[in-house]
Design brief:
The complex is a heterodimer of chains A (200) and B (85). Chain A is mainly alpha-helical and 200 residues long. Chain A contains ten helices and no strands. Classes of the chains: A mainly alpha (200), B mainly alpha (85).
Chain lengths: 200, 85
Amino acid sequence: MAVPEQATDEALVSRAALGDNHAFDEITIRYQARVYRLACRLVGSDDAPDVVQEGFLSVYRNLASFRHESRFGTWLYRIVTNAALMHLRARTRRPVESLEAFLPEFDATGSHRHEPAELQVAARADELLDRRFLAEQAAAALDRLPDLYRSAFVLRDLEELSTADVARVLGIEPATVRQRVHRARLMLRGYLTALAGVTS
Amino acid sequence: MTDISCQTGVELLMDYLEGVVPEDMRTSLDSHVAGCPKCTAFVASYLATPRILRDATAAAVPPELQRSLLAFLRAKRGEGPRQKD
């Protein structure tokens, strides 16, 4: 039996832009899991449903502006990320303790202050820690990142977009993406180190 | 070839991994990390961090949101509820 060929994203977008609501439903179904996961990582699970709704509604309202010059997925990520960042700006955030304290430490000669066993332990955090505890702490750690670092880290390292695509989504230079992702990785690595039982 | 410190190596690590450091600096970094157990350990944990955070934050979309999202979008488009898709 022949398997029906799945419509491409771009074909669905073209049909939806011409008023085919079934095509837009198909886009929604195809991307809702990815969009929800992205929203959770950017704003937390409590606010994620609102961002998902706002994001898809914004996609629907802007279908006519999709130029087919970039991939639909990248365009969608830009819209949802903007919705998430607007959501973060609008809400009153409780003060959170910075992760700066988890940056790596060096002595006067520029050598690492800690021994190899301590420096490596973060790589085993998922073996050493209870899975649910790690999930809670990971969400809390993302929440403690500055917004600029979180958005770059989430898109580049958690959603696995290329640096060039993250730059397009956020409207910044690739070098700035690298700098923000690097800073976030350093803080989160130190945070995992502390969770796994030793200081950074 | 320039001799570099652990701190300089850490500062350049992301650019190194993305292939945007000059060749001579790349050679210096390779040489430093190969002879530095602390940096070897640090790089291992730096590389593992995205994977651990990715796995720990991979939330599944709740079924009730799947239903309510389609209903929300259809209502915004001025459509009534559908009996069956």
